[in-house]
Amino acid sequence: MEPGNDTRISEFLLLGLSEEPELQTLIFGLFLTMYLITVFGNLLIILAIGSDSHLHTPMYFFLDNLSFVDICFTSTTIPKMLLNIQTQSKVITYEGCISQIYFLILFAVSDIFLLSVMAYDRYVAICHPLHYMVIMNPHLCKLLVLVSWIMSILNSLLHCLMMLRLSFCTHFQIPHFFCELNQMIQLACSDTFLNNLVMYFAAVLLAGGPFAGILYSYSKIVSSIHRISSAQGKYKAFSTCASHLSVVSLFYCTMLGVYLSSAATQSSHTSAVVSVMYTLVAPMLNPFIYSLRNKDIKRALKRIIGVPEM
Protein backbone atom coordinates (compact mmCIF):
# COMPACT_ATOMS: atom_id res chain seq x y z
CA MET A 1 0.00 0.00 0.00
CA GLU A 2 1.54 3.30 -1.09
CA PRO A 3 1.44 6.23 1.32
CA GLY A 4 -0.67 9.12 0.24
CA ASN A 5 -3.14 11.71 1.44
CA ASP A 6 -6.10 9.91 -0.11
CA THR A 7 -5.20 6.51 1.32
CA ARG A 8 -7.97 4.76 3.25
CA ILE A 9 -7.52 1.47 5.04
CA SER A 10 -10.41 -0.81 5.93
CA GLU A 11 -9.15 -2.24 9.23
CA PHE A 12 -6.72 -1.85 12.12
CA LEU A 13 -4.98 -4.31 14.42
CA LEU A 14 -5.48 -3.93 18.18
CA LEU A 15 -2.27 -5.25 19.74
CA GLY A 16 -3.85 -5.52 23.21
CA LEU A 17 -2.08 -5.59 26.56
CA SER A 18 0.28 -8.44 25.73
CA GLU A 19 1.25 -10.47 22.68
CA GLU A 20 2.49 -13.44 24.73
CA PRO A 21 0.18 -16.44 24.07
CA GLU A 22 0.54 -17.87 27.59
CA LEU A 23 -0.90 -14.67 29.12
CA GLN A 24 -3.99 -14.52 26.91
CA THR A 25 -6.03 -17.00 28.98
CA LEU A 26 -5.16 -15.16 32.21
CA ILE A 27 -6.05 -11.77 30.70
CA PHE A 28 -9.31 -13.16 29.28
CA GLY A 29 -10.39 -14.68 32.62
CA LEU A 30 -9.41 -11.59 34.63
CA PHE A 31 -11.12 -9.09 32.34
CA LEU A 32 -14.25 -11.23 31.90
CA THR A 33 -14.62 -11.47 35.69
CA MET A 34 -14.08 -7.74 36.20
CA TYR A 35 -16.49 -6.89 33.38
CA LEU A 36 -19.25 -9.11 34.78
CA ILE A 37 -18.76 -7.61 38.26
CA THR A 38 -19.00 -4.12 36.73
CA VAL A 39 -22.19 -4.85 34.80
CA PHE A 40 -24.00 -6.75 37.57
CA GLY A 41 -22.84 -4.34 40.29
CA ASN A 42 -24.12 -1.28 38.45
CA LEU A 43 -27.32 -3.10 37.41
CA LEU A 44 -28.01 -3.85 41.07
CA ILE A 45 -27.61 -0.17 41.91
CA ILE A 46 -30.09 0.74 39.13
CA LEU A 47 -32.57 -1.93 40.31
CA ALA A 48 -32.20 -0.86 43.95
CA ILE A 49 -32.95 2.77 43.13
CA GLY A 50 -35.83 1.91 40.82
CA SER A 51 -37.50 -0.49 43.28
CA ASP A 52 -37.32 1.68 46.42
CA SER A 53 -39.53 4.79 46.53
CA HIS A 54 -37.36 6.21 49.33
CA LEU A 55 -34.50 6.47 46.83
CA HIS A 56 -36.46 8.55 44.31
CA THR A 57 -34.51 11.69 45.20
CA PRO A 58 -32.17 13.92 43.15
CA MET A 59 -28.99 12.32 44.55
CA TYR A 60 -30.08 8.80 43.61
CA PHE A 61 -31.50 9.97 40.26
CA PHE A 62 -27.99 11.13 39.31
CA LEU A 63 -26.45 7.94 40.73
CA ASP A 64 -28.88 5.90 38.63
CA ASN A 65 -27.69 7.69 35.50
CA LEU A 66 -24.04 7.32 36.54
CA SER A 67 -24.42 3.54 36.93
CA PHE A 68 -26.02 3.30 33.47
CA VAL A 69 -23.19 5.34 31.93
CA ASP A 70 -20.56 3.16 33.67
CA ILE A 71 -22.09 0.00 32.16
CA CYS A 72 -22.09 1.57 28.69
CA PHE A 73 -18.58 3.00 29.13
CA THR A 74 -17.10 -0.38 30.00
CA SER A 75 -19.14 -2.20 27.34
CA THR A 76 -17.65 0.02 24.64
CA THR A 77 -14.20 -1.58 24.92
CA ILE A 78 -14.11 -4.78 26.99
CA PRO A 79 -16.44 -7.09 24.96
CA LYS A 80 -14.45 -6.39 21.78
CA MET A 81 -11.20 -7.09 23.63
CA LEU A 82 -12.57 -10.39 24.98
CA LEU A 83 -13.86 -11.38 21.53
CA ASN A 84 -10.44 -10.71 19.97
CA ILE A 85 -8.72 -12.89 22.57
CA GLN A 86 -11.29 -15.67 22.18
CA THR A 87 -11.12 -15.70 18.36
CA GLN A 88 -7.35 -15.02 18.35
CA SER A 89 -7.99 -12.10 16.01
CA LYS A 90 -6.76 -8.55 16.53
CA VAL A 91 -8.75 -6.99 13.71
CA ILE A 92 -11.16 -4.08 14.12
CA THR A 93 -12.71 -2.42 11.08
CA TYR A 94 -12.21 1.28 10.32
CA GLU A 95 -15.92 1.90 10.95
CA GLY A 96 -15.76 -0.13 14.18
CA CYS A 97 -12.80 1.92 15.35
CA ILE A 98 -14.54 5.24 14.69
CA SER A 99 -17.67 3.95 16.44
CA GLN A 100 -15.62 2.85 19.45
CA ILE A 101 -13.98 6.28 19.69
CA TYR A 102 -17.40 7.96 19.45
CA PHE A 103 -19.02 5.96 22.25
CA LEU A 104 -15.91 5.95 24.44
CA ILE A 105 -15.70 9.76 24.41
CA LEU A 106 -19.49 10.05 24.75
CA PHE A 107 -19.69 7.99 27.94
CA ALA A 108 -16.42 9.30 29.42
CA VAL A 109 -17.57 12.92 29.10
CA SER A 110 -21.06 11.99 30.37
CA ASP A 111 -19.35 10.46 33.41
CA ILE A 112 -17.47 13.72 34.04
CA PHE A 113 -20.58 15.88 33.69
CA LEU A 114 -22.64 13.62 35.97
CA LEU A 115 -19.95 13.71 38.65
CA SER A 116 -19.94 17.52 38.52
CA VAL A 117 -23.76 17.63 38.67
CA MET A 118 -23.67 15.30 41.69
CA ALA A 119 -21.17 17.65 43.36
CA TYR A 120 -23.60 20.54 42.81
CA ASP A 121 -26.38 18.41 44.30
CA ARG A 122 -24.31 17.79 47.45
CA TYR A 123 -23.45 21.51 47.63
CA VAL A 124 -27.15 22.47 47.61
CA ALA A 125 -28.03 19.70 50.11
CA ILE A 126 -25.40 20.80 52.66
CA CYS A 127 -25.16 24.56 52.10
CA HIS A 128 -28.88 25.22 51.42
CA PRO A 129 -30.72 22.34 53.13
CA LEU A 130 -33.99 24.24 53.65
CA HIS A 131 -34.29 25.05 49.96
CA TYR A 132 -32.91 21.74 48.67
CA MET A 133 -36.13 20.24 47.27
CA VAL A 134 -37.16 23.59 45.77
CA ILE A 135 -33.81 24.12 43.99
CA MET A 136 -33.22 20.48 43.02
CA ASN A 137 -36.70 19.97 41.61
CA PRO A 138 -37.40 17.14 39.11
CA HIS A 139 -37.43 19.57 36.17
CA LEU A 140 -33.93 20.89 36.97
CA CYS A 141 -32.55 17.39 37.58
CA LYS A 142 -33.79 16.14 34.21
CA LEU A 143 -32.54 19.31 32.52
CA LEU A 144 -29.04 18.88 34.00
CA VAL A 145 -28.85 15.27 32.79
CA LEU A 146 -30.22 16.23 29.36
CA VAL A 147 -27.66 19.03 28.94
CA SER A 148 -24.90 16.61 30.00
CA TRP A 149 -25.95 14.13 27.29
CA ILE A 150 -26.27 16.82 24.60
CA MET A 151 -22.82 18.26 25.37
CA SER A 152 -21.29 14.77 25.37
CA ILE A 153 -22.93 13.81 22.07
CA LEU A 154 -21.83 17.01 20.34
CA ASN A 155 -18.27 16.64 21.64
CA SER A 156 -18.05 12.99 20.48
CA LEU A 157 -19.49 13.88 17.10
CA LEU A 158 -16.94 16.66 16.65
CA HIS A 159 -13.99 14.36 17.40
CA CYS A 160 -15.26 11.65 15.04
CA LEU A 161 -15.85 14.11 12.21
CA MET A 162 -12.30 15.38 12.76
CA MET A 163 -11.05 11.78 12.61
CA LEU A 164 -12.73 11.20 9.24
CA ARG A 165 -10.54 13.85 7.62
CA LEU A 166 -7.35 11.96 8.53
CA SER A 167 -5.53 9.53 6.23
CA PHE A 168 -3.75 6.38 7.41
CA CYS A 169 -0.92 4.95 5.32
CA THR A 170 1.15 1.98 6.45
CA HIS A 171 0.89 2.30 10.23
CA PHE A 172 -2.33 0.49 11.12
CA GLN A 173 -1.25 -1.30 14.32
CA ILE A 174 -2.77 0.24 17.45
CA PRO A 175 -0.65 -0.48 20.58
CA HIS A 176 -3.76 -0.61 22.76
CA PHE A 177 -6.74 -2.85 23.53
CA PHE A 178 -9.19 -0.29 22.12
CA CYS A 179 -9.21 2.57 19.62
CA GLU A 180 -8.02 5.47 21.75
CA LEU A 181 -8.31 8.94 20.20
CA ASN A 182 -4.75 10.09 20.90
CA GLN A 183 -3.27 6.82 19.59
CA MET A 184 -5.29 7.09 16.39
CA ILE A 185 -4.18 10.66 15.77
CA GLN A 186 -0.54 9.60 16.21
CA LEU A 187 -0.97 6.86 13.59
CA ALA A 188 -2.27 9.23 10.91
CA CYS A 189 0.03 10.20 8.05
CA SER A 190 -1.84 13.43 7.22
CA ASP A 191 -1.66 16.75 9.07
CA THR A 192 -2.99 16.31 12.63
CA PHE A 193 -2.45 19.84 14.00
CA LEU A 194 -6.17 20.71 14.00
CA ASN A 195 -7.10 17.35 15.56
CA ASN A 196 -4.59 17.82 18.39
CA LEU A 197 -5.78 21.39 18.92
CA VAL A 198 -9.42 20.32 19.21
CA MET A 199 -8.55 17.32 21.40
CA TYR A 200 -6.55 19.34 23.97
CA PHE A 201 -8.99 22.25 23.94
CA ALA A 202 -11.92 19.88 24.56
CA ALA A 203 -9.98 18.11 27.33
CA VAL A 204 -9.29 21.38 29.14
CA LEU A 205 -12.84 22.69 28.66
CA LEU A 206 -14.89 19.52 29.25
CA ALA A 207 -12.70 17.84 31.89
CA GLY A 208 -11.06 20.86 33.54
CA GLY A 209 -14.26 22.94 33.64
CA PRO A 210 -16.38 20.36 35.51
CA PHE A 211 -13.43 19.56 37.79
CA ALA A 212 -13.15 23.26 38.71
CA GLY A 213 -16.89 23.19 39.46
CA ILE A 214 -16.41 20.14 41.70
CA LEU A 215 -13.57 21.86 43.57
CA TYR A 216 -15.68 25.00 44.05
CA SER A 217 -18.66 22.97 45.32
CA TYR A 218 -16.51 21.11 47.83
CA SER A 219 -14.78 24.28 49.01
CA LYS A 220 -18.23 25.62 49.91
CA ILE A 221 -19.21 22.27 51.47
CA VAL A 222 -16.07 22.19 53.66
CA SER A 223 -16.69 25.78 54.71
CA SER A 224 -20.31 24.97 55.59
CA ILE A 225 -19.36 21.82 57.53
CA HIS A 226 -16.69 23.77 59.43
CA ARG A 227 -19.42 26.10 60.76
CA ILE A 228 -21.41 23.18 62.24
CA SER A 229 -20.84 23.15 66.00
CA SER A 230 -21.45 19.49 66.90
CA ALA A 231 -19.07 16.69 65.89
CA GLN A 232 -22.04 14.44 65.12
CA GLY A 233 -23.49 17.06 62.80
CA LYS A 234 -20.16 17.42 60.98
CA TYR A 235 -19.87 13.66 60.54
CA LYS A 236 -23.45 13.35 59.24
CA ALA A 237 -22.92 16.18 56.73
CA PHE A 238 -19.60 14.79 55.50
CA SER A 239 -20.91 11.22 55.24
CA THR A 240 -23.54 12.33 52.69
CA CYS A 241 -20.81 13.32 50.21
CA ALA A 242 -18.03 10.86 51.15
CA SER A 243 -19.04 8.29 48.52
CA HIS A 244 -19.20 10.87 45.76
CA LEU A 245 -15.85 12.32 46.79
CA SER A 246 -14.31 8.83 46.66
CA VAL A 247 -15.69 8.18 43.15
CA VAL A 248 -14.50 11.59 41.89
CA SER A 249 -11.01 10.99 43.32
CA LEU A 250 -10.85 7.51 41.78
CA PHE A 251 -12.00 8.67 38.34
CA TYR A 252 -9.82 11.77 38.04
CA CYS A 253 -6.74 10.20 39.64
CA THR A 254 -6.84 7.21 37.28
CA MET A 255 -7.32 9.42 34.21
CA LEU A 256 -4.53 11.72 35.37
CA GLY A 257 -2.33 8.67 35.97
CA VAL A 258 -2.84 7.52 32.38
CA TYR A 259 -1.68 10.77 30.85
CA LEU A 260 1.16 11.36 33.30
CA SER A 261 2.51 7.84 32.79
CA SER A 262 2.28 8.09 28.99
CA ALA A 263 4.00 11.49 29.05
CA ALA A 264 6.74 10.30 31.40
CA THR A 265 7.58 6.97 29.74
CA GLN A 266 6.49 7.66 26.12
CA SER A 267 5.45 3.99 26.13
CA SER A 268 2.17 3.05 24.46
CA HIS A 269 2.11 -0.27 26.33
CA THR A 270 2.37 1.49 29.70
CA SER A 271 -0.47 3.81 28.72
CA ALA A 272 -2.61 0.83 27.70
CA VAL A 273 -2.02 -0.96 31.01
CA VAL A 274 -2.73 2.14 33.11
CA SER A 275 -5.88 2.96 31.08
CA VAL A 276 -7.42 -0.25 32.46
CA MET A 277 -7.86 1.71 35.70
CA TYR A 278 -10.35 4.23 34.35
CA THR A 279 -12.00 2.04 31.67
CA LEU A 280 -12.69 -0.94 33.94
CA VAL A 281 -11.45 -0.68 37.54
CA ALA A 282 -13.15 2.65 38.36
CA PRO A 283 -16.60 1.62 36.98
CA MET A 284 -16.24 -1.74 38.78
CA LEU A 285 -15.51 -0.13 42.16
CA ASN A 286 -18.22 2.56 42.01
CA PRO A 287 -21.11 0.23 43.08
CA PHE A 288 -19.03 -1.04 46.02
CA ILE A 289 -18.19 2.50 47.12
CA TYR A 290 -21.83 3.60 47.06
CA SER A 291 -23.30 0.41 48.54
CA LEU A 292 -20.78 -0.05 51.34
CA ARG A 293 -21.03 3.56 52.55
CA ASN A 294 -24.77 4.05 52.10
CA LYS A 295 -27.37 2.53 54.43
CA ASP A 296 -30.29 3.29 52.08
CA ILE A 297 -28.64 1.50 49.14
CA LYS A 298 -27.67 -1.46 51.35
CA ARG A 299 -31.25 -1.76 52.60
CA ALA A 300 -32.65 -1.68 49.05
CA LEU A 301 -30.08 -4.23 47.84
CA LYS A 302 -30.95 -6.58 50.71
CA ARG A 303 -34.60 -6.34 49.75
CA ILE A 304 -33.80 -7.25 46.11
CA ILE A 305 -31.52 -10.14 47.03
CA GLY A 306 -33.94 -11.39 49.67
CA VAL A 307 -31.73 -10.94 52.74
CA PRO A 308 -33.86 -10.19 55.83
CA GLU A 309 -33.25 -6.79 57.45
CA MET A 310 -31.82 -6.86 60.94
From TrEMBL:
Domain G-protein coupled receptors family 1 profile: 41-290
GO molecular function: G protein-coupled receptor activity; olfactory receptor activity
Keyword annotations of the record: Cell membrane, G-protein coupled receptor, Membrane, Olfaction, Receptor, Sensory transduction, Transducer, Transmembrane, Transmembrane helix
Subcellular compartments: Cell membrane; Membrane
Transmembrane segments: 26-49, 101-120, 140-158, 197-216, 237-260, 272-292
InterPro entries: GPCR_Rhodpsn, GPCR_Rhodpsn_7TM, Olfact_rcpt
Gene3D superfamilies: Rhodopsin 7-helix transmembrane proteins
One cellular-component annotation, GO: plasma membrane
Record membrane topology: Multi-pass membrane protein
Superkingdom of origin organism: Eukaryota
Record family assignment: Belongs to the G-protein coupled receptor 1 family.
PANTHER family in alphabetical order: OLFACTORY RECEPTOR
Functional description taken from the UniProt entry: Putative odorant or sperm cell receptor.
Record protein name field: Olfactory receptor
Source organism (scientific name): Vulpes vulpes
Lineage: Eukaryota, Metazoa, Chordata, Craniata, Vertebrata
Gene it is expressed from: LOC112913288
